[in-house]
Design a protein that fits this description.
Layout: H1 13-20, E1 27-30, E2 33-35, E3 52-54, E4 58-61, E5 68-73, E6 78-80, E7 83-92, E8 98-107, E9 113-116, E10 119-121, E11 131-132, E12 136-144, E13 152-161, E14 191-194, E15 200-205, E16 210-211, E17 216-222, E18 229-238, E19 256-258, E20 263-265, E21 271-272, E22 280-283, E23 294-304, E24 309-311, E25 315-319, E26 325-330, E27 335-337, E28 342-348, E29 355-364, E30 369-372, E31 382-385, E32 391-392, E33 401-405, E34 415-425, E35 446-450, E36 455-459, E37 466-468, E38 475-484, E39 488-492, E40 496-503, E41 508-510, E42 521-523, E43 536-537, E44 539-541, E45 549-554, E46 564-572, E47 583-589, E48 601-606, E49 621-625, E50 642-645, E51 648-653, E52 658-661
């Protein structure tokens, strides 16, 4: 007869403590034997020794230690950034091994727990399980966004080993009977904060919208919300036309600088800053080859210690290396002025360049003196000795013109000046620059002479009160110059010489342009100084070397014989000033013909011809006749006094006051 039944071997608490105390992790083997109760033919019990059966041993492990767990990310009291974070840590069990790792993630602002995805709610009965690896665990947390910034979170995690029921998916179930790790962090010690605010980054240099040289780009990058700045990189892109420097695309589509490749490429890329932090900087390599006339855009990007990333504020600039031109148009180069309240000029530059500011330099010729309104070389608002000194004028040259109120400049009479202009464009290029970024020498000198003195013209070919037989249709002339004390008389040419002719005998004025004139003459004496005086333009030859200029005027060919003519000349200088005292002569036209018509006659009345006298003569007198009106008879009659002694002729010499042998001259 076969049968089976179970058996037990109870242990008391006192008994079990002895074999299993302090031996966790040890293995135990249980052996059992059984004996039947066979009987003989007499139904008497047979001896048991012969019926024992030794069963196979059963081994089990004693494990009362729970697993240990750690959290690596996030560290306690740290900050996480935007997006989903992978939480992970370590786990270890020395004996039976880890069966399951569970976690709780609580939001402290409202006490809710993360239930997966975007769901938050009450604490779950069964904790969510993390992914379990050989010695670590992990799970991907919620995707943090801007609303989560500044909120504190707490995380708990626990692990259970392979004791008890390994099939139950709940370490906390009493049915599982597994060893459970204690929560690694308490509420007060395991916290982290979310910060999704990215760093703020921007460009500090270049500042201007146009530059002519660029060696370094710099800027700032500041982490927000208590995080630290990790790194900064920079995108350098050209405008839509590209740089045309791409080795693989020479059609000009390459618009982005690749620092790692050292060339322009056709896809957007960032290059790490040379100097990290704030401020950060990037040193442009020589091979970047910025092209004049091209517009470039600089875009920074920063990332903080929790992974928040920022595309910063871009800045565009025009790279331009051509220099602007400048010219002084007022006063005109080489002119003479009597006042100089305003200096003006032009500024020009090929597109896309644009003139901006204007500087002037004013040189006093003859000395190394420069107008110095700012006191760079000495006293302000004076001409000071030294090197060429530029000063900035107010206003801008954007419109292509500029002006400067020069009324405060201490101009000196009779002094020559040189005016230079220098324009700086928005890229920093200057007029006359030897290279981009180098100071420009400005425009060529525009000389000007400052003249407060009136000019002067004189009649030198005819003497006042003279009698001339050759002036009809002939020329009258003289000198004309502008007198400047600093340069010396006669060194400056005049603008014009004017001539006025009046017939005093017949009271007629020569004015061939006047209506109703007869042979060029009109009745009346139009005063030479009057507003309507008929001035005729004389021919003027400017000075040569240190001599005065000369002028000449051809007289009309219908002068009346025996008439007296008043001739007046005046000059006009280059500043518009007339001379103050006019040069005037009165001459008589006396044309010689054969006698008796025009030859003058003179005779001695006292002493009488053939008379005998016995007393010294007090005077000799007589008459002189001619058909002209004698304006000034002094010197019109010549006298010679001879005597005969011992057959020799002698004459009275006014010079020696005695008698001299010879016929002698007329006196």
């Amino acid at each position: 007869l076969n049968f089976s039944q179970s058996w037990t071997f109870p242990f008391s608490a006192a008994q079990i403590a002895t074999p299993f105390a302090d031996v966790t992790g040890s293995s135990f083997t249980v052996y059992a034997t059984a004996a039947n109760t066979d009987r003989d033919q007499f139904n008497a019990a047979a001896p048991l020794e012969g019926n024992w059966t030794l069963l196979t041993g059963t081994t089990f492990y004693w494990d009362v230690d729970p697993p240990t767990t750690t959290v690596v990310v996030p560290a306690n009291l740290t900050t996480l950034g935007a997006g989903a974070t992978t939480f992970y840590g370590g786990v270890y069990d020395a004996d039976s091994g880890v069966n399951r790792v569970e976690y709780l993630l609580q939001r402290q602002s409202d006490g809710l727990f993360w239930l997966g995805g975007a769901s938050w709610g009450a604490r779950p009965t069964i904790w969510p399980a993390a992914s379990l690896w050989k010695s670590s665990w992990s799970f991907t947390g919620p995707s943090f966004g801007a609303p989560d910034t500044g909120i504190t979170y707490m995380i708990w995690e626990r692990a259970c080993d392979n004791t008890g029921s390994v099939a139950l998916a709940d370490c906390g179930s009493v049915l599982k009977q597994a060893n459970i790790s204690a929560v690694s962090y308490t509420v007060s010690s395991m916290t982290f904060t979310v910060n999704t605010i990215p760093p703020l980054s921007g460009i500090s240099y270049p500042v201007n919208s146009q530059v002519n040289a660029l060696a370094t780009v710099s800027g700032t990058a500041i982490a927000q919300g208590g995080t630290a700045l990790s790194w900064v990189d920079l995108m350098i892109s050209s405008n839509s036309s590209g740089n045309g420097l791409c080795p693989t695309s020479p059609d000009g589509t390459c618009r982005y600088w690749s620092g790692s490749l050292g060339q322009w490429i056709n896809s957007s890329t960032f290059t790490p800053a040379t100097v990290q932090g704030t401020p950060w900087s990037y040193a442009l390599p020589g091979g970047i080859g910025l092209e004049s006339g091209q517009t470039y855009t600089l875009t920074p990007r920063g990332q903080d210690s929790v992974g928040n990333q920022d595309i910063g504020t871009s800045r565009s600039f025009l790279f331009y290396t051509s220099s602007p031109t400048a010219a002084v148009t007022l006063p005109s180069s080489g002119t003479v002025v009597g006042s100089l309240p305003l200096i003006s000029g032009t500024a020009a530059e090929p597109s896309p360049g644009l003139p901006n500011t204007v500087e002037l330099a004013i040189h006093q010729v003859g000395a190394s003196l420069w107008w110095d309104p700012n006191g760079v070389l000495g006293a302000p608002n004076h001409f000071n000795p030294g090197a060429k000194t530029w000063f900035l004028i107010s206003g801008s040259a954007v419109g292509g013109t500029w002006s400067f109120n020069s009324s405060s400049v201490l101009w000196q009479n009779g002094t020559q000046y040189e005016i230079f202009a220098r324009v700086t464009d928005f890229a920093g290029n200057q007029t006359g620059q030897p290279a981009p970024g180098s100071p420009g020498v400005g425009s060529s000198a525009s000389p000007v002479l400052y003249d407060l003195d009136a000019p002067d013209a004189k009649i030198t070919t005819l003497l006042n009160n003279g009698y001339y037989s050759n002036i009809n249709g002939g020329a009258v002339g003289g000198t004309a110059s502008d007198f400047l004390s600093a340069l010396g008389a006669g060194l400056v040419q005049v603008a014009q010489v004017q001539f006025n002719l009046y017939n005093q005998t017949q009271s007629k004025t020569y004015d061939p342009s006047a209506p109703g004139n007869v042979g060029g003459w009109i009745a009346g004496d139009e005063e030479a100084t009057g507003a309507n005086a008929p001035w005729q333009t004389a021919a003027y030859a400017p000075f040569g070397g240190l001599s005065s200029g000369t002028w000449s005027y051809t007289l009309p060919g219908n002068l009346a014989n025996g008439n007296a003519y008043r001739m007046v000349v005046r000059s006009l200088d280059l500043t518009g000033k007339y001379q103050t005292t006019y040069s005037t002569v009165v001459v008589t036209y006396d044309f010689y013909t054969a006698p008796p018509t025009q030859r003058p006659d003179a005779g001695v009345d006292s002493p009488v011809h053939g008379a005998y006298i016995n007393a010294p003569l007090a005077q000799i007198s007589g008459t002189a006749l001619d058909n002209v009106i004698v304006q000034n008879p002094a010197g019109a009659v010549l006298l010679r006094l001879n005597r005969m002694i011992a057959g020799a002729t002698q004459y009275w010499s006014l010079g020696s006051g005695g008698w001299v042998v010879g016929i002698g001259p007329q006196n």
